[in-house]
Design goal:
This protein is of the alpha+beta class. The protein contains seven helices and four strands. The chain folds into two domains: 74 residues, 3-Layer(aba) Sandwich (Glutaredoxin), CATH 3.40.30.10; 106 residues, Glutathione S-transferase Yfyf (Class Pi), Chain A, domain 2. The protein has a four-stranded mixed beta sheet with strand order 2-1-3-4, covered by helices on one side.
Length: 200
Amino acid sequence: MLRLYDFLPSGNCYKIRLLLTQLGIRFEKIEVNILKGESRTTEFLAKNPNGRIPVLELESGQFLAESNAIIFYLSEGTKFLPQDRLLRAQVLQWLFFEQYSHEPFIATSRFWISYLGKAEEYKEALEQKRAPGYAALAVMENHLQQHSFFVGEQYSIADIGLFAYTHVAHEGNFDLTKFSAIQAWIKRVESQPLHISIDS
């Protein structure tokens, strides 16, 4: 059985739980509390030298890190990853966008505010993250005004990757009320078969 080294509040871990559930793949969830330094132990670093969650332990005993690499691996040969060469590249395009232009601003703000409770301490840094965070949301909004999903008009891991932190952006004090296309897309994602919430 697959083992997922997981931290429940993490959107990066949620991506994998959501995809595994929608694929109908059974897995064992092993909680790693990053707030207590559990991803920095010698035992965990042997699984991922970068000291970050999530990590997926395969049936072979090998370990795979980085959330978007994991969902790409799991989605191979399924409806969640297109077979067309260009569409596959577009999936990767959005996953790279998520990690470089979205997650560092929206997810980090959420973590500092809602999980560390340090909004005041990080006030200046949070302010610096607002403009690029909203810029990422604007890119998504513009795309979704013309498309139901991010790639090929079909729900894919591109949507899963972006949904994870976008639907909880308010926990990082990002206001989604001005982004009507994103809000409609969130509802479409939540209506997909076997959808689970981030706290599941």
